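If you are new to this repository, start here. Below is one unmodified record pulled from the training split, so you can see the exact layout before writing a loader.
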Amino acid sequence: MAEEKKGVETNTKALQFQEFLMENEIDVFSTESTDDARQTVIFRSRIEACGQILPMAIFIDTSIFTIIRTQIIAALPADRQPRIKAYLNELNLRFKIFKYYMRDDGTVFLEVCLPFVDETFDSKMVQLILSVIVQHLEDTYEEIMGHIWGGE
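And here is the target side for that same chain:
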């Protein structure tokens, strides 16, 4: 019986991105293939902003959406969450490419969604948007953390 393929092997966009990483000697990602219906492959790494190391992941699946997600903070105390949710909505109005949101457990994420079909997937665009995210966080991380911890 033939072994069923999954992950990068069956996900054209993830395969293209993995090949791009190898061709460009970019070795800062770990790869995880999931067992979901969309054959999601997660490329995990980190982003440095203002001296802080933030977990980041690129979710590439067989849908038209590629997601880049960066964790800003984990486990924000419950008493700070309502005020910070309002601030995250302000950030979403200011920055059209970025979506900030908070999960029920208080984890705050920054997310970018890039639409690509298999034929138009562009690894260089993913790399460019990663650079845009890094620059954005360099410019805004201290302000964001000031609101989170300072009560501004």
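Two things worth knowing about this chain: The chain has one domain: 8-23+30-149. The first helix runs from residue 12 to 23.
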